[in-house]
Each structure stands twice: as structure tokens, then as C-alpha cells.
Specification:
The protein is of the alpha/beta class and 148 residues long. Helix content is 40%, strand content 31%. Strand 1 and strand 2 form a beta hairpin. Helix 1 packs parallel to helix 3. It is globular and about 40 Å long.
């Protein structure tokens, strides 16, 4: 089974506002990596964090073991702790409120049926080189979107 590190980050200028996402996908034991980013109008930081993860998985063609490395506690706790409970409760939080960003969480739930995920939280803006690069790509995508 292939193994990857997926570094991700999302950014938003205003919340909501124009947002960007970026990821670095690196095959463990392989020689290359894939960097990609994009942007959307009228979104939130959390949606961009989730989108970065989903787009990274879109780039993996076979079932794989993937370490998802993110500075987003929302993403990491969601994948590690909350997602299973949300499903059991009919996509409701512990407070019985609808899960925000349900469309993206449902995509990640589907991804979990194909790949083995190991979410890892890292401190943001702490000079982690891949996190810094993902953040730069996300912010650059926002600038590009605004200049269109």
C-alpha cells in the first residue's frame, strides 16, 4: 500500500470572504511531491481548510495510508474525534445542531472508506516549512482570485 504525507492549509480574507487553499502531497519513499492550490469567493477559513484536504486526496489514485498534517484543529479533531459521532447522531453535533460544512465532511467520510487516514496537528505559523509553503500558496491563490 502506498503511503503519503499530505500537508494542507486554508486561508480566508474576511470570514466569510475570498478564501484559498493549498496542499503538498509527498509519497513516502518516493522521489516527488505535488503542490496545488486554489481559491473561492464568499467562503470561510474552515471550508478552505477542509477543501485543501479533499483536493489532496483527489490526487491519490489508489487506496493509500495518508498522514494528514494540518494546523487546523477543526480538521484534525473532526477527523479523529467528531466525524464518527456526527454520523451516529444523523449529522448533528453533540449539542444537537446541524454540522457545519456537512457537504465537505461527508466527502471526507467517503474518503475514509477508501484510504487510511492519520490526522496530525501542528502549530500554525511556527516555521514548519511545509505548513508555511501551504499557507503561502493559499494566500497567493486569494490574490490571484481578486486580480481576475
Amino acid at each position: 500500500m502506498q503511503r503519503f504525507d499530505l500537508f494542507t492549509d486554508g486561508a480566508c480574507s474576511g470570514n466569510p470572504g475570498p478564501g484559498g487553499w493549498g496542499f503538498i502531497l509527498r509519497e513516502i519513499g518516493g522521489s516527488g511531491e505535488l503542490l496545488h492550490s486554489g481559491a473561492e469567493h464568499g467562503t470561510t477559513n474552515n471550508r478552505m481548510e477542509l477543501t485543501a484536504v479533499i483536493r489532496g486526496f483527489d490526487s491519490i489514485s489508489v487506496p493509500s495510508q495518508v498522514r494528514v498534517i494540518s494546523d487546523s484543529e477543526y480538521v484534525v479533531k473532526g477527523l479523529k474525534e467528531w466525524l464518527t459521532g456526527w454520523k451516529v447522531r444523523g449529522w448533528k453535533t453533540a449539542a444537537k445542531k446541524p454540522v457545519k460544512n456537512i457537504d465537505l465532511w461527508q466527502q471526507l467520510d467517503q474518503i475514509r472508506t477508501i484510504h487510511t487516514l492519520n490526522p496530525v496537528w501542528i502549530r500554525g505559523h511556527a516555521e514548519h516549512p511545509e505548513n508555511t509553503k501551504c499557507d503561502e500558496m493559499a494566500v497567493a491563490a486569494i490574490v490571484t482570485l481578486r486580480n481576475r
